[in-house]
C-alpha cells in the first residue's frame, strides 16, 4: 500500500512514468480485449427493477454537469482545473453521489413517496482561503436547475468540521514542487547513494512514494523509503533501507525541507552531516536486491506439471440457464426470493441497499466503511505505517475482474464509474455476480424409513480492490435459507521493507534483502439491519457452566455440571460495544422484540463471526480516526448524520479526524426497539512468512461475518427448494426417491472458455 498514494496523487514522477506505461498497455487492451461469450445460457433473463434505483452512482454526465456548474464563476468558489492548480489555488478533489436519507428512500421504496433528490458530495481543496482548508459540500438537487444550491455538508456529518489543508491528498501542482525538494535532497548525496545502494540519485533510478504523517493536520511530515524503480511487480521488494522524512507543511514551498535521513539504524538531520559521516567512513554499506534476477518475485509458472494438472480444473455451471435476474440499467438483482439494489462509491466501493428476502427487508444498507492496516516494525516505514484505505481511494482501486479466473465462468459483470481528475471514468467488469454450487447439501438426513438432501447453492456478489500492493476480495453472499455473509480475503504483495538482521520481533525475512512486518487488517462494514421491521433490539445470550439440581435427582447424587443459557436485551449503546467470545460463550442477536414467531420468540438474526480480529494498537499514527476498529462490532441508533464510521480524510488526520466514531455511542442512547445500525469488522492478523512470496493467499488470509435467521421464522427457510430429493421407504423397505420434477440433464452446453487475450486496465 505504500505506493498507493501515488496512484491517486502521483507523488513522484517516476511512479507517474510507471502509471503512464500502464495506460499505454490499457489502450492496447481496449482494442484487443475478447468479446464476451454470447451463449444465451449465460445471459440473465430480462428483468425490470420495481422502481428506478435511487442509490445508483452519479453518471458521467451528472459528474460533468456538477463540475461545470461548480466551476462557473457565479458559484464564487474560484475553482481552477486540478491539473493547473497551484498550492494556493482552489480545486475539486472529488465528486460522488450523496445517497438519499433513509427516511426519504424508504418512503419512496415502500410508500410511493416522491423520488428522492439526486445530490452530490464534493470535496474542494481551498488553498486560496485564509487559512487554507478543505471543504465538504452538498450540491443539488440534480440535474442542475434554479433550485440547485451548495450547502456545507461538513457541519452536518463531521465531528471536526474544519479539515486542515495539510490533510489533503496530493495533486499535480504539489507533486511538481515536492519532486523538486526530494530531488535536491537526494541529489546532494547522489555519490554516496551510488556507493551504498548501487545507483546514483535520479528520478528514473528510484521511486519515492510517500507515507503520510499529519497528526492533527497542523503539519505534513511524510516519510519516504527509496525503492529501486522496477518495470514490474518486483518493485514491492525493491526497498533499499534508505529513509528520509520531509516537512511539506507550509503553503510557501521555500519553507519545505528535509527533517531526517535514516540509514543503517542511524539518523542525520541534514545532507551535509550525512556526507560528513559518509566521507569519514562511518556508514556501513548494506547489500542490495539484485535488479537483474527478479523472477522469484513475480507471478509465473514455476516447476514441473503435477499429475493430471495439464487438464482444465473443474467449473460450476447452470445446466439450464442462469437462475438470477439483473436489471443492469437500474442495478437491481433478484435470486431465489432475494432482491437488492446496487450502488458504488469511489471511497467505499460496492454497496447493497434494500436487501429483501421473501418480500421482507432484512437490511436497508450493507456497505464497506473502512479498511485499516496497522503495522509494527523497526524502521520508519513499517513503524509509521497505519493505513485507512478509504483515503487512498479504496473504491477507485476496484479492478477489472478477469473472466474464468476471478469469478465463476458464467458470471454477470457490471461496470462502475467515478470522478477522476476532472472527468468521469468508467471501469469495466469490476463487479461480478454468480450463483455457485456449494458442493455440499444445505441439509440432509438419511435413515431406513425416510431420507432427504437439499442441494447447496449460494449467490455471490464480488469485487476486488487493489490498493497499491494488496488485493482485497470482498464478497457479499446470499444463501437460500436467509443467511447473508460478508467475507474479505487478501492477496497481492506484502508491504515489505529492507531486511533488518535484528528485526525478528516484528519481521519475517522473505527474500535476500527484504522482510515483511506484522500488521493487522481490519475491514469495517455498516450493516443497517431491519429485521422484521425497522425497530430492532440487541439480545445477548450468555452461556455458562453451572451446578444444577433437580427434583428427579436422588439426594446423594452430586449436582450436575452443565451449560445454561441466560438472555438479556441490551439497554444502551455502550453495552453494544461487542467483542466476540472466542469460545462462543456469548452470542448476539438483532431482531424485533415486538414481532414474535409462533413460539413466542422475537424474530431475529444471529451474528456469526468467522476468524475475526480487531485493532489493538493506537497512538500517534492511528488514534481517533479508527475507533470503529477497536472492537469487533458496535450497535448504534441509526442517524442520518451518522451515516459512515469514517470519512475520506480520516486517513490523514489520526489525531483530529472529521468523523470520530466514539461519538456514535458516547451519548449512550437507548437501543431498545430503535432503528439500529450494526458496525462490524472482519480481519486478520498478518504475520508474514516465506509463503507470502510472491503473493499472500486468498484461501488463507480471510475473515467473515455471517448473519443468519434465529427464530426469525417458524422453521428453516429452504424447504420450498425443489433441487432436493426426498425418499420414503416402500412396503419392502426400499427408499423410493422423488426429485421434484427437476431435469438435471439440462439444456445448455458448458460455458465457452474463450482465450483471454490481453486484459483491460
Ligand atoms: Cu497483510
UniProtKB/TrEMBL annotation:
Does the keyword section mention rRNA processing? no
GO CC annotation, single: plasma membrane
Pinpoint the Copper amine oxidase catalytic domain residues.
Answer: 316-717
For the modification 2',4',5'-topaquinone, the affected residues are: 470
Lineage, top-rank taxon, reads Eukaryota
Which cofactor does this sequence's record say it needs? Cu cation
Where are the catalytic residues? 389 (proton acceptor), 470 (schiff-base intermediate with substrate)
Q: Which GO terms describe its biological process?
A: amine metabolic process
Q: How is the cofactor bound?
A: Contains 1 topaquinone per subunit.
Please list the GO terms describing molecular function.
copper ion binding; primary methylamine oxidase activity; quinone binding
Q: Write the Enzyme Commission number(s) for this entry.
A: 1.4.3.-
Would you identify the family this protein belongs to, as annotated? Belongs to the copper/topaquinone oxidase family.
Q: Indicate what this protein is called per its UniProt record.
A: Amine oxidase
Q: Which organism is it from?
A: Wallemia hederae
Amino acid at each position: 500500500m505504500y505506493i498507493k498514494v501515488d496512484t491517486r496523487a502521483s507523488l513522484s514522477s517516476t511512479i507517474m512514468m510507471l502509471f503512464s506505461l500502464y495506460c499505454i498497455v490499457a489502450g492496447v487492451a481496449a482494442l484487443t480485449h475478447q468479446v464476451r461469450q454470447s451463449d444465451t445460457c449465460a445471459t440473465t433473463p430480462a428483468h425490470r427493477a420495481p422502481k428506478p434505483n435511487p442509490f445508483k452512482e452519479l453518471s458521467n454526465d451528472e459528474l460533468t454537469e456538477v463540475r461545470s456548474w461548480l466551476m462557473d464563476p457565479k458559484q464564487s468558489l474560484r475553482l481552477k482545473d486540478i491539473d493547473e492548480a497551484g498550492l494556493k489555488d482552489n480545486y475539486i478533489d472529488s465528486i460522488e453521489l450523496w445517497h438519499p436519507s433513509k427516511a426519504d428512500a424508504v418512503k419512496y421504496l415502500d410508500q410511493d413517496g416522491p423520488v428522492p433528490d439526486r445530490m452530490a458530495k464534493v470535496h474542494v481543496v481551498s488553498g486560496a482561503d485564509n487559512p487554507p482548508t478543505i471543504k465538504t459540500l452538498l450540491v443539488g438537487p440534480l440535474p442542475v436547475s434554479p433550485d440547485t444550491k451548495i450547502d456545507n455538508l461538513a457541519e452536518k456529518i463531521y465531528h471536526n468540521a474544519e479539515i486542515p489543508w495539510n490533510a489533503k491528498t496530493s495533486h499535480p501542482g504539489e507533486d511538481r514542487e515536492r519532486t523538486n525538494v526530494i530531488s535536491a535532497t537526494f541529489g546532494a548525496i547522489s555519490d554516496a547513494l551510488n556507493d551504498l545502494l548501487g545507483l546514483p540519485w535520479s528520478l528514473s533510478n528510484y521511486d519515492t512514494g510517500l507515507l503520510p504523517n499529519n497528526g492533527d493536520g497542523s503539519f505534513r511530515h511524510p516519510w519516504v523509503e527509496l525503492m529501486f524503480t522496477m518495470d514490474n511487480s518486483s518493485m514491492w521488494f525493491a526497498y533499499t533501507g534508505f529513509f528520509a522524512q520531509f516537512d511539506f507543511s507550509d503553503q510557501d514551498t521555500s519553507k519545505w525541507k528535509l527533517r531526517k535521513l535514516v540509514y543503517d539504524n542511524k539518523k542525520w538531520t541534514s545532507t551535509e552531516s550525512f556526507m560528513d559521516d559518509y566521507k569519514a567512513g562511518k556508514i556501513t554499506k548494506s547489500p542490495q536486491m539484485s535488479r537483474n534476477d527478479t523472477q522469484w518475485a513475480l507471478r509465473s509458472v514455476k516447476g514441473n506439471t503435477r499429475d493430471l494438472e495439464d487438464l482444465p480444473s473443474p467449473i460450476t455451471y447452470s445446466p439450464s440457464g442462469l437462475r438470477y435476474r439483473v436489471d443492469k440499467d437500474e442495478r437491481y438483482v433478484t435470486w431465489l426470493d432475494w432482491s437488492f439494489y446496487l450502488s458504488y462509491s469511489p471511497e467505499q466501493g460496492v454497496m447493497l441497499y434494500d436487501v429483501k428476502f421473501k418480500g421482507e427487508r432484512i437490511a436497508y444498507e450493507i456497505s464497506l466503511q473502512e479498511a485499516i492496516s496497522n503495522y509494527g516494525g523497526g524502521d520508519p516505514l513499517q513503524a509509521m505505517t497505519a493505513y485507512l484505505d478509504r483515503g487512498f481511494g479504496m473504491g477507485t482501486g476496484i479492478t477489472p475482474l478477469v473472466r474464468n479466473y476471478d469469478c465463476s465462468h458464467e458470471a454477470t459483470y457490471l461496470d462502475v464509474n467515478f470522478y477522476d481528475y476532472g472527468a468521469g471514468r468508467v471501469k469495466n467488469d469490476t463487479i461480478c455476480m454468480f450463483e455457485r454450487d456449494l458442493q455440499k447439501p444445505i441439509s440432509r438426513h438419511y435413515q431406513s424409513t425416510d431420507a432427504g438432501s437439499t442441494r447447496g447453492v449460494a449467490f455471490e456478489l464480488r469485487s476486488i480492490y487493489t490498493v497499491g500492493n494488496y488485493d482485497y476480495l470482498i464478497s457479499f453472499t446470499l444463501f437460500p435459507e436467509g443467511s447473508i455473509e460478508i467475507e474479505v480475503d487478501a492477496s497481492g504483495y506484502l508491504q515489505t521493507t529492507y531486511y533488518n538482521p535484528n528485526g525478528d520481533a516484528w519481521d519475517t525475512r522473505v527474500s535476500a534483502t527484504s522482510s515483511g512486518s506484522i500488521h493487522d487488517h481490519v475491514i469495517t462494514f455498516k450493516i443497517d439491519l431491519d429485521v422484521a421491521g425497522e425497530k430492532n433490539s440487541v439480545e445477548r445470550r450468555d452461556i455458562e457452566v453451572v451446578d444444577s439440581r433437580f427434583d428427579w435427582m436422588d439426594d446423594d447424587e452430586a449436582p450436575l455440571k452443565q451449560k445454561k443459557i441466560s438472555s438479556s436485551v441490551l439497554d444502551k449503546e455502550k453495552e453494544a460495544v461487542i467483542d466476540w467470545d472466542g469460545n462462543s460463550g456469548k452470542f448476539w442477536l438483532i431482531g424485533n422484540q415486538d414481532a414474535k414467531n409462533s413460539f413466542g420468540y422475537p424474530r431475529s438474526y444471529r451474528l456469526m463471526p468467522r476468524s475475526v480480529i480487531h485493532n489493538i494498537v493506537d497512538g500517534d499514527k492511528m488514534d481517533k480516526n479508527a475507533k470503529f476498529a477497536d472492537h469487533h462490532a458496535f450497535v448504534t441508533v441509526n442517524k442520518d448524520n451518522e451515516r459512515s464510521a469514517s470519512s475520506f480524510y480520516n486517513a490523514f488526520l489520526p489525531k483530529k479526524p472529521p468523523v470520530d466514531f466514539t461519538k456514535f455511542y458516547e451519548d449512550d442512547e437507548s437501543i431498545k426497539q430503535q432503528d439500529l445500525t450494526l458496525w462490524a469488522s472482519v480481519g486478520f492478523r498478518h504475520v508474514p512468512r516465506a509463503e507470502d512470496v510472491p503473493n499472500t493467499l486468498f484461501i488463507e488470509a480471510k475473515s467473515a461475518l455471517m448473519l443468519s435467521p434465529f427464530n426469525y421464522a417458524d422453521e428453516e427457510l429452504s424447504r420450498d427448494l425443489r433441487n432436493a430429493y426426498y425418499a420414503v421407504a416402500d412396503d419392502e423397505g426400499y427408499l423410493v426417491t422423488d426429485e421434484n420434477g427437476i431435469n438435471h440433464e439440462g439444456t445448455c452446453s458448458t460455458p465457452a472458455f474463450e482465450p483471454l487475450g490481453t486484459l483491460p486496465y
